[in-house]
């Protein structure tokens, strides 16, 4: 296990036409696993196993496998069997690296008291990989190798059947489409370039995939009926996710600037084949805006409900005040009529206070209720006007 080193070999920015000059590697840390410690896979032998941990929650595991000697010839020609076998092997190897080396790395990081300030140590579901890329080495000398290669990748479309024929003839070093790849062993430099481009493409796809998943969760929480959802927390999560998406876009532009033209074209070919722009990047941009609008609407709705609650409280206070004021005036008038010292400055009879004090309490209560009903009706009318 080692920290990824800085491979800078010259000034940044299109400094070399035939090699990558990234100012820093994309992976944060990488490691190798002893094949003897790899899990046992029926029919397959692990010859190499390594992993690379990237930012944005991406763990990439690479393994090299070969068939065990002495297998039945009919089984060796069964492309569907080996496709499924490699799929399961990839999942097991990825899970093995996650449960051993990655788990050990996280455990060591947790020993530092300030680790959470720099590293997101949330629990992740590492049981199943996002996908498994299956790359086959063409055995042009063995019997049935060409037919097996055709079955491995030629069931896609007519274009790739023609590419397989070119691969077998030696006109192209590899055929790579979706998850099933096949390449020639006699073109190592071209294969290595394509493999490195594939690693970059897988990183950008995986990282943007998790951004897309985060936006889906934010949107789902914002649509939930639960009143326990905190808009402040959702806005914080949306801001962090938007920053991750922006960082990925800037990082891809930086990679484009520093890698060789061939490497960039190969990476773009992979991303184009997977419809990266249509399926991930553009939907992420749209979901950011949708989440932002949804949270703004949710905040307005909650503010309106809060304002309604406040208005109801104030209206209740107002209704109570009307009744209390009327009763207080009646009581004051009656007390003043019984105590000449309180009404010595009155200019005569027939005042409002005297009239109110002469009414019965039931009449005062009815008048107060009628006035309160009028106030409530005016309040509801104005509230409906403000909401329409």
From TrEMBL:
Alphabetical UniProt keywords: Membrane, Transmembrane, Transmembrane helix
Superkingdom, natural source: Bacteria
Name of this protein: CorA-like Mg2+ transporter protein
Organism this protein belongs to: Brachybacterium massiliense
Transmembrane segments: 312-332, 363-381
């Amino acid at each position: 296990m080692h920290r990824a080193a800085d491979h800078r070999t010259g000034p940044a920015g299109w400094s070399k036409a035939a090699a990558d000059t990234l100012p820093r590697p994309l992976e944060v840390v990488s490691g190798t696993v002893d094949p003897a410690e790899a899990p046992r896979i029926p029919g397959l032998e692990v010859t190499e196993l390594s992993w690379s941990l990237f930012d944005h929650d991406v763990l990439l595991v690479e393994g090299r496998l070969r068939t065990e000697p002495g297998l039945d010839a009919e089984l060796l020609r069964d492309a569907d069997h080996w496709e499924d076998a490699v799929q399961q092997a990839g999942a097991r190897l990825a899970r093995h690296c996650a449960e051993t080396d990655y788990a050990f790395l996280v455990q060591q990081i947790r020993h530092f008291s300030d680790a959470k300030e720099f590293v997101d140590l949330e629990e992740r579901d590492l049981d199943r990989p996002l996908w498994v890329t299956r790359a086959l080495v063409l055995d042009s000398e063995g019997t049935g190798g060409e037919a097996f290669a055709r079955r491995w990748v030629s069931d896609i479309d007519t274009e790739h059947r023609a590419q397989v024929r070119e691969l077998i003839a030696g006109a192209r070093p590899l055929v790579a489409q979706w998850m099933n790849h096949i390449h020639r062993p006699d073109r190592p430099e071209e294969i290595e370039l394509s493999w490195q481009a594939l690693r970059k493409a897988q990183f950008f796809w995986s990282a943007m995939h998790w951004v897309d998943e985060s936006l889906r969760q934010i949107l789902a929480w914002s649509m939930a009926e639960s009143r326990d959802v905190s808009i402040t927390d959702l806005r914080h999560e949306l801001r962090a996710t938007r920053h991750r998406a922006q960082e990925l876009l800037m990082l891809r532009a930086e990679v484009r600037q520093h890698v060789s033209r061939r490497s960039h074209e190969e990476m773009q070919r992979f991303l184009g084949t997977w419809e990266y722009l249509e399926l991930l990047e553009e939907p992420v941009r749209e979901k950011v805006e949708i989440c932002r609008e949804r949270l703004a609407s949710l905040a307005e709705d909650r503010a309106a409900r809060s304002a309604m609650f406040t208005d109801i409280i104030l209206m209740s206070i107002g209704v109570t005040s009307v009744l209390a004021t009327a009763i207080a005036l009646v009581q004051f008038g009656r007390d003043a009529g019984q105590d000449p010292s309180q009404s010595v400055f009155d200019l005569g009879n027939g005042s409002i206070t005297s009239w109110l004090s002469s009414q019965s309490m039931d009449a005062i209560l009815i008048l107060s209720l009628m006035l309160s009903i009028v106030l409530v009706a005016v309040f509801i009318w104005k509230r409906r006007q403000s909401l329409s």
